[in-house]
Structures are given as structure tokens and as C-alpha cells.
Amino acid sequence: MAILALSVLPRSNEVMMPNESNSVKCGNCGNLNPSTVDKCSYCGHRLRWGPVIVKALAGLVVLSGGYFSWTSCSQTLIPIPSPSPTYSLTSSPQVTTPSPIVSPDSNPTPTPSPPVPTTSPIVSPDSNPTPTPLPQLPNATTYRSLAEVPNVPKGVIRYGGSTTFAVLEDKDKGDAITAIKKAHPEFNLIYIEPPPGEKPGSGSGLRMLIEGQISIARSSRPLKDDEFERARNRNFTLEQIPVAIDGIAFYVNPELMNQGVKGITLTQAQNIFTGKVKNWKEIGGPDIEIAPFSRDPIDGGTPEFFQETVLRKQALGSNVQIARDTTESIRKVAINSGGIGYATASEVINQIMIRSLPLARSANSSFISPCSDNNCTAVNKATFTDGSYPITRQLFVIIKRDGSIAEQAGVAYADMLLSDEGQKLLDKAGFVPIRNNPR
């Protein structure tokens, strides 16, 4: 609450006594009263209405919410703007509305995670910039193991969002979620599917987070302005914490590579998925009609990222078939002789039904495989790290900054994935750790 102070202090040792110059004569009894009072000290008769009006005006100023300072030299009121709240992983505005999701036994202050850069090394078709290396983390507090992460809430924690993170539940790829539950048994993570009619992905997960259906969202793309705005309209903010680097890989029916398809450029990929190129012979392949498959950009972070960066915000071509998820897309490509799709690279490796397709920035660039070996048993982390692979991006944990259990859970989850053990689990899942050198 702002306060208006308009006081004038007497000089030291000066006593204010009533006289003709500094007194007010009572109209009822005729006695002199000090000019600072509004009622007669003898009979109680009101002397004047001025002080009452001044007090009323002062009260209005107090209620106005602004801060003011009275300067004796200029005799003017100078407004001092109220400080804006600042947000970080260690502090947030306190909101009295509790989270409707979980009710843990305690609610300590969220713990710090290391600040990390939020700019992904993204490239555009036909561009050939100097590869952007993986950003280095500044000196920051991190944890060696999942179990060392403090202030982890107890209870059922609902999470959702990007299907890119689904490999974290894969027992053959580290099963990070099980490892987290083992380190913190009372941190009960439960994946929540979107409502009927919606497809799982970053977009639907972020909507569920904003609307209070989940406590943690995982996203394969950065937050959008309208998502920040929707959160502010509900009196909280969103914070995106990058935890890993990922690459986008194309995959095709194996027969195409057996018939001479060696790879595609970014421009060719753009033309295929916008419907400008509809036969493989147009780009040096066999005379087979192209059958492109994609997830819906409205729901998924990967297809949305693909549309914005590779397609340059152009719409998908009318010949592009929409698949519910990557699993469905891979199956359809595998049975269609001209099939092609795309997905996060970690979902493409070790798939015997399809073949990963090398990618080039331009016609004058070399093809780079998203796989580290001919059998595609692992992703090409070296090229993802140094930025030479044409399409890479950051993966995010989204924290709901509302002072509730949802915020505490999001901070703890991000801290775990950024710990040494968490980064190794992400590495095993097929991602590039955001921290270059986990100890």
C-alpha cells in the first residue's frame, strides 16, 4: 500500500503556543485554539472543515496504489513506480489459489536449477551458416544424483506433453521415469493423456498445464507468446527450462534406398511436405509416388517445429496424411513403397521396418546421417552437438510459476534431469545432454 507523507516538522526546541497568528478562534465560546486542531479544546465545537477534506484526499491517494515522494525543494509530487516482480527458479510470486492436482505433506521453497541458454541452433533450407556448437552452461549449482535433489514434493504428480520424451519411459533406454521414482518413491509421476478428441503432444500438454489439468509439461518447442499471455491472464507465469538437445530425422520405406535414394536436402524436404514434389523421380529417385506422413502441427511440438523451420510456416500439402503419433506414422511408411515421415531422432533408431534418411543443408552440402552407424543403433550425437546436422533443437521442461505444488514439482523434475545422473539418463535415451560434461 502506498503512503502519502505531507508533514512539516517544527524547528528544534520550538513550542507551538496559540496566539493571533497561529490560532483559530472558536465561533461558539470565543476561546483561541491551536491552528492544528479541528475542534475547540474548550467546548468541542468544530472549528473548520479543511483538515477533514485534506484527510479524505489523503485517504484517496493511499487507496490509489501509487508511490509518491514529497520534495521540499520543488514542492511537487514525484511518482515512484512500483517494482515489478522478478521470476527465477528459486523464487516466484505467491498465489493463494492452491493447485487442484496434488496435496503433498510439505511445501518447502523450490530448489535452484542451473540457468541454461534458450536459443536452439536452428537452420533454414538452403542456408549454410557456421554450425552452432552446443552451448556451455555457466557455473551453477547442480546435483550429482537424482536422490540428491532436495525439496521434492510428495504425492501424485500429473505430467504430460511432448511425445518426444516418451523414450524416457523406455526400459531399453534407461527408463528415466522409473529411476526418478526409485530415487524419490513418494514423488509419484503419472502420465496424463489429453482429453478425447485431442492428440498427445507439446501443444496439448501446454494447454493442460495452463488449465490446471497437469503439474508438469514437457515440450519439444519453445513457448509461444499466446501461451505466456494465457498464463498471465490466470495470474501465473510459465518458465521453460532446456534439458537436452535433439535432432529431427527423416525416415523412408527401405525399398526407396534400395532403389537409389541416398538422401534429401532441406529444400527437397520442404517441397515434399508442401506438395510441390509428388514423385521420387523428381529428386533423383525411382518412379514412385511420394506418400508423406506427418503428425498434426496443432497438437505436436515436433510437427509444429518442423512446419515453422523447415516448411517456413507453409501449410502441409493436401497429399500429406496425418498420423496420430510417430508409431502410427512409422507403421504406415513401412507398408507404403513411397512413404516418408519425420520424427525426433531417438524414435527412429533401432527401427527395422524403416530406414533413416541422410540430410543435407543444400545441394552443395554433404549428406549427414542422423545415425551414428550404418545399422542406426544410436543417434549421431557428435553432429547434433557441434550443430553440423541440419535440424536440431532444444527440449524443455515447462514450470508453472504459481507458488503451488505444481511449481515445486516442476522445479524438482527439471533439477533431476539436469543432475549428473539425469543427464546420463537423457544421453542413454538418445538425446544430447544440455550440460557438456556431466561429472
How much helix, percentage-wise, in residues? 10-25%
**Residue-averaged pLDDT:** 79
- The rough form would be described as elongated
Most strands sheet? 10 strands, mixed
What gap, in angstroms, lies between the N and C termini? 49 Å
Number of helices: 12
- The count of DSSP E runs of length 2 or more, i.e. the number of strands, is 16
How much β-strand is present in the residues? 15-25%
Looking at how many chains there are and whether they match, the oligomeric state comes to single chain
- Backbone CA Rg: 32 Å
Order of helices and strands: EEHEEEHEHEHEHEHEHEHEHEEHEHHE
Q: Look at the helices and sheets and give the structural class.
A: alpha/beta
Question: Which key terms come to mind for this protein?
Answer:
439 residues; alpha/beta; 12 helices; elongated; disordered N terminus
In words, what does this structure look like?
The protein is α/β, with parallel strands linked by helices and 439 residues long. It contains twelve helices and 16 strands. α2 links the parallel β5 and β6. The chain is elongated, with a radius of gyration of 32 Å.
Topology:
Blueprint: E1 23-25, E2 32-34, H1 50-64, E3 67-70, E4 77-80, E5 155-161, H2 176-183, E6 187-191, H3 202-210, E7 216-219, H4 225-233, E8 237-252, H5 254-258, E9 264-265, H6 266-273, E10 291-295, H7 301-309, E11 321-323, H8 326-335, E12 339-344, H9 345-348, E13 355-357, E14 359-360, H10 381-386, E15 392-401, H11 405-418, H12 420-428, E16 432-433
Parallel strand pairs: 5-6, 5-7, 9-14, 10-11, 10-12
Antiparallel strand pairs: 1-2, 3-4, 7-15, 8-12, 8-13, 8-15, 8-16
Helix pairs in contact: 11-12
